[in-house]
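Sequence only, no structure available. Ideas?
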Amino acid sequence: MSTRIEVPRNVWILGLTSLFNDTSSEMIHAVLPLFLVSTLSVDVALVGLIEGTAEATASILKIFSGAISDYWQRRKELAVFGYGLSTVVKPLFVIASSPLWVLLARVGDRIGKGIRVAPRDALVADSTDASNRGTAYGLRQSLDTIGAFLGPLVAFGLLSTGQSFRFIFAVALIPGVLAVACLAIGVREPRQPYLASKRANPLNIEALKSLGSAYWGLAIAALLFNLGNSSEAFLQLKAKQVMIPDAHIPLVLVIMNLSYALSAYPIGALSDRVNRRTLLILGWGLNALIYLGLAFSQSPWQVWLLITSYGLYLGMTQGVLLAMVADRVPEHLRGTAFGFLNLLIGIALLPASLLAGWLWQTVSPEVAFLVGSGFAVAGMILLSLKRQVDIGI
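Reply:
I predicted one. Tokens follow.
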């Protein structure tokens, strides 16, 4: 008897869209901290402010885009618009002459992300069922992350040949355009049996209550965990601290995302057969150990090992968390559920990045990572104690 799991066409197209988009975004992200510090003379605390503000902006918008997709009972158009907006603001990085320009570009890019992510994640859930949902999310995350390590790899190659930061920003526009075209042409809106003739407001109190205690318990645990989960820019700054050459800094994201890409799909498939909550707890525990290691690492090889492990942590948690949400909420409120989850995570990411930047600059980098490790342990403990998230096991 075959155990092969079929992955729907929509999931493959959404994965390829993410691959192209992340190639574009990560080409920029891989060198942006260096551009800010080296070219625009920005201090580390301001890097944290820019990154945290951009990510928080995206997360707030995810509520509304997810709810709108539930109300419209269509998701593709919002996803196309979000990817398109992220693409059209990328030229702002090329002409940036001050931190304000970078902030505007990052916020514009993240607004696009905020618009697209909840409808896109709901599209994956709409195109699958419980038997292949973990596999589908894992595959989409893996394809997404292939782009996330191709982008820094291209940036590294261009830096190594003497190209400027601004040239890298310009080249990043090409895969961004390909992402929008791939989604617009390739994805088909699935027909859903739950569609109602009368649309209801998915943000009213009764609708939010109907998301259930299992969902809200999981979301609160994710909020607590992410209060210590600062921007990946701090991984790059740690690499610089242990004397990894500037030209090699983009490889931080290459190695991290390669590990992420290789682990997300098999772990997603595994989550269709075992307890997803256990996998998430183990992933958050690994994050706590990684931050602890970053606090005390003193040599390049230690940092490279921890960065590789960070990619494994992402592979163990990102797709699994989304599959857990899809398992636990009503079908007609999936967009809203993903939107609120991302809002809570975004609320946490801004203070997490601000706190990490402040601690790094005023106390020490070691304390910044130790605090992050502590929040990861707290989130892991809360998730372990929340029996209501065991529904479906």
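The CA atoms of residues 287 and 313 lie 6 Å apart.
Hope that gets you unstuck.
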